[in-house]
Amino acid sequence: MPKKRILVVDDEEDIVELVRYNLSKEGFDVVCASNGTECLERVERHSPDLIVLDLMMPGMGGLEVCRHLKANYETASIPIIMLTAKTEESDVVLGLELGADDYVLKPFSAKILTARARRVLRRLDSSSAEGCEILRRGGIELNILGRCVQIGGEDVFLTFSEFEILRLLMTHPGRVYSRSQIMRGIRDDEYIVTERTIDVQIVNLRKKLGRSGKCVRTVRGFGYKFQT
Q1: Which of 33, 102, 203, 213 has a CA between 20 and 30 Å from the CA of residue 159?
Q2: Are residues 140 and 122 in the same domain?
Q3: Spatial CA neighbour of 121 closest among 49, 64, 170, 71
Q4: Structure confidence by residue, pLDDT tens digits, 3-28
Q5: Residues 108, 209: one domain?
Q6: Do 143 and 62 have their domain in common?
Q7: For strand 80-85 and strand 50-54, is the pairing parallel, antiparallel, or unpaired?
Q8: What is the pLDDT of residue 51?
Q9: For residue 164, what pLDDT is reported?
Q10: Exposed, middle or buried, 29 (CB in 10 Å: 0-12/13-18/19+)?
Q11: Domain ends where: 126, 147, 175?
Q12: What is the Cα–Cα distance from 94 to 108, expressed in whole angstroms?
């Protein structure tokens, strides 16, 4: 099996070297960039399977890079893990709005980042699984094992968290979930997820589902449910 290639983008050399060393030690092929412009060049040249992207960089920042990649059909499906400071919640929310798959707060453990990378890449690997458990509701076809979604035979590209939210709601149609229940259902103990990020991801999910997005309903004062 060929090694998975991860592009690491950060303007701090110490962080780049720390991440490069630990990911390489775990068997990944690591490519590095120190700014947004270099990142776009490396993406075109090396076709990474995953990008670890710092949000706060001089010049072209991580959010601009994320926006550019997600707007391009050829690069939109490349998963992105954002690196961000704990005080930058608004940037995390905006990054999720733009289509980033996950985030890790600085200062971070290399072990946690590696685990997050493996988690996202496992999702991609499982998309080719032959066996599947499929939910079909409201015109949406959700393949749980394959971790893919289709509407009318067309693929819908969801981030990791968007998929988990949809899976949770579709598995129990009609059941109302509070934001805190959704947070507990999609995260692990290393995440710091706020109710605002849940709302943002619900908005994004509805947009991506098109007409079927109306099945993800708001229950005022409490949370969300799936109902056809």
Answers
A1: 33
A2: no
A3: 49
A4: 899 999 999 999 999 999 999 999 99
A5: no
A6: no
A7: parallel
A8: 97
A9: 86
A10: middle
A11: 126
A12: 20
Residue among 144, 171, 165 at smallest CA distance from 223: 165
CA distance 96 to 87: 16
Beta strands, E only, 157-200: 177-178
Please, is 18 exposed, middle or buried when counting C-beta atoms within 10 Å of its C-beta (0-12, 13-18, 19+)? middle
Full-prediction pTM beyond 0.70? no
Q: What is the pLDDT of residue 8?
A: 97
**The two three-digit tokens of residue 62, written as one number:** 């991580």
| Per-residue tokens: 98 | 């733009």
Beta strand extents in the chain (DSSP E only): 5-9, 29-33, 50-54, 80-85, 102-106, 134-137, 140-143, 148-151, 154-156, 177-178, 216-219, 223-226
Residues 6+ apart with CB under 8 A from 12: 54
Q: Specify whether 115 is located in the same domain as 186.
A: no
Domain residues for 146? 134-226
Instruction: Determine the 3-state secondary structure of 198 from DSSP.
Output: helix
Tens digits of per-residue pLDDT, 180-212? Answer: 888 877 765 445 556 777 888 899 999 999 999
Number of domains in the chain: 2
Q: How many whole angstroms separate alpha carbon 134 and alpha carbon 76?
A: 24
